[in-house]
Amino acid sequence: VSLHLNSAERAYLFALFLAVMVLAGLHALVGLWAPALLTLLLGTAGLAAHWRWRWLSSLAFVGLAGVAVNGLLRYGLPPLGVLMAVTAALAAWDLDEFSLQLRRYGDDPRVEALWHHHLRRVLLILGVAVAMGVFNLTIRLSLGFGLTVLLGALSFLGLAQAARLLRQR
Amino acid sequence: LLRWLILSGLTYGLILLGLGLLRGELLVLAFPLLLYWLAALLFRPSEPRLRITRQLSASRVRVGADVTMQLSITNEGGWLDQVEIEDELPPHLHRSEGQHSAITALAPGASVTLTSTLRPLHGLYRFGPVNVRVSEHLGLAAQSVTLSASAELEVLPQVVRLPRIPIRPRYAGVYAGLIPTRQGGEGLAFFGVREYHPGDSLRHINWHASARHPEALFSSEFQRERATEVGLILDVRRRTHAFAQVEGFFEQAVVAVASLAQSFLTDGNRVGLMLYGRRLVDWTLPGYGKGQHERILQSLTRAQIGETHAFDRLEYLPAHFFIPGSQIVFVSPMLREDLETLVRLRARGYAVWVISPNAVDYEAQRLGEQPQEDGEAVRVAARIARLERGLLMRQLQQSGVPVFDWDMAIPLDYGLRTFLRGAGRWLGAPL
After folding, report:
1. pLDDT tens for residues B85-122?
2. Higher-pLDDT residue of B224, B165
3. Which of B3, B36, B103 shows the shortest C-beta gap to A105?
4. DSSP single-letter state for residue B217
5. How many C-beta atoms surround the C-beta of residue B409 within 10 A?
6. For residue A163, is pLDDT > 80?
7. CA A24 to chain centre
8. How would you class B100 by CB atoms within 10 Å of its CB: exposed for 0-12, middle for 13-18, buried for 19 or more?
9. Which contacts (CB < 8 Å, 24+ apart) does range A119-126 have?
10. Which of A35, A100, B91, B321 is most exposed, with minimal Cβ within 10 Å?
11. What whole-number distance in Å separates Cα of residue B74 and Cα of residue B80?
């Protein structure tokens, strides 16, 4: 276990901390201690994954997303807070993988440039996603059943097509 | 693939759940995942077109020399966000400094160069392909390609200048050399007196003998000096090298054989080399001169420890490869069971000389440097092994086989000089 952290690892820890604190905090505020504790456990699993058990990384990410969805559906947690938590969890999941990748290449000067590129891209994507989310949370649209099914089918097909293309590459 | 599956599963799940439950917040939660995924799709790398070159500062060097290796990869296609390069070295080859892997972005036409310095042990090293992984920044859409960048590096063993080794086998060749024979003729040492033959040089007429016998003239004869044949045997059996960190140890044995070959060839002898114990027959036919030394060095370059059932015991040594009565030099850490074969060779008329690198001291010293919980056990084991080895060496000596018990902490040339002044004095005694 090395405690010397590179920039990407510091960013990863910050993102994980943010995700766990927001999600656990949202649950704790309404007195839901069990999901808050579970969130902390998942955060610890995420940390452990970075230094030892790699398979825990994705489990922690999926777990945090699951807790967020559960909180939203069952306990009516504020959607903006949950969105922030999921976005931070996604950032942590991404930076966990990337920082370990960079660690393998040590002090290569090219690593720093690559890290800046990566950070810019992730921040841009997640920033746009949060902005879109906030915008969408402020508007209300009423959809009929037919339109909902059509949108569902379209999104399903769209994602399937995208997945096919990605796998072909 | 796992990351891709997890991300797509979560995204699908959130969208379907949101639509199914008519909960817009769930669709909002899917936004970051969806955008992340779409970004990976949008920036996915085009088909990589990479050109690779591997350059070595030398393709043939001696052990101890530094070799600089440059591996250049040029992007002849479109922009590549993230290129990971992993160059695997041939087995047993290690970098002393430099890079063997890199991660970088490559613009069209740009290139990346990895420079490293190698300081290899003897051997023939074949560099293989290089693994390159190309992906976008998020690492979801990745492609792996293998680029061929073959090269060969031949590392010849070091050769140490040794003192002249006064061998005296029974067999003498036809060419002049430095081995005194039991025949009169041209030479330096006085051999005897015979009746003058027409054609004898006036300088060789023995005037003292002729004066005592006025009825005839007598000529002096000198001891004829001839070259002989030397068969070098390097023991490469895994069984005799069954201890840790054997690389440096074996390297020293190879240096010893290369140096002995040079010494014997310089004296005008015919020298052959057998690597015993790895392949069926690894035999460099005997020959003379610098060309033969080159052949022996090339053979030693390929020398590796190995095993074959056919030659795992010394008793299977194909002695008929060596001319009867010639000199055999066996370089081996030695096993107890080898004694009988060496004594038998000696009995068949071969002049056998054993150079035995001391594996017991080498291993004991190595273990002694490490903090051991069972230090006392190591000391006792080393003591027993030393006693056994000492007994084996003594038995060989008593059987008429000279043994140079080489403590590898001492340089070969110095150790050999000391040996030739002491126990090895009778190496040059006639059989």
Report:
1. 888 888 778 777 787 888 888 888 888 898 889 888 88
2. B165
3. B103
4. -
5. 10
6. no
7. 15
8. middle
9. A119/A8, A119/A11, A121/B39, A121/B43, A121/B137, A121/B138, A122/A91, A122/A94, A122/A95, A122/B137, A122/B138, A125/B32, A125/B35, A125/B36, A125/B39, A126/A87, A126/A90, A126/A91, A126/B32, A126/B35, A126/B36
10. B91
11. 11
Which tokens go with B39?
A: 């970004």
To probe the interface with B, which of A166, A167, A168 has the most B CB atoms within 10 Å? Answer: A166
A79/B28 Cβ within 8 A? yes
Return d(Cα B405, Cα B333) in angstroms, integer: 9
Distance CA B259, CA B254 (A): 9
The number of residues making up chain B comes to: 431
Q: How many angstroms separate the CA atoms of B180 and B186, rounded? A: 11
Selected residue of B10, B12, B17, B25 to mutate for chain A interface (largest A Cβ count, 10 A): B25
Indicate yes or no: pTM above 0.90: no
Please provide the average confidence, as pLDDT, over all residues in chain A.
83
Kindly state the tokens that stand for B140.
């979801």
Are B15 and A159 spatial neighbours (Cβ–Cβ below 8 Å)? yes
- At A30-53, the pLDDT tens digits run 888 888 899 899 888 888 888 888
Compute the nearest-CA separation of B125 from chain A (Å): 25
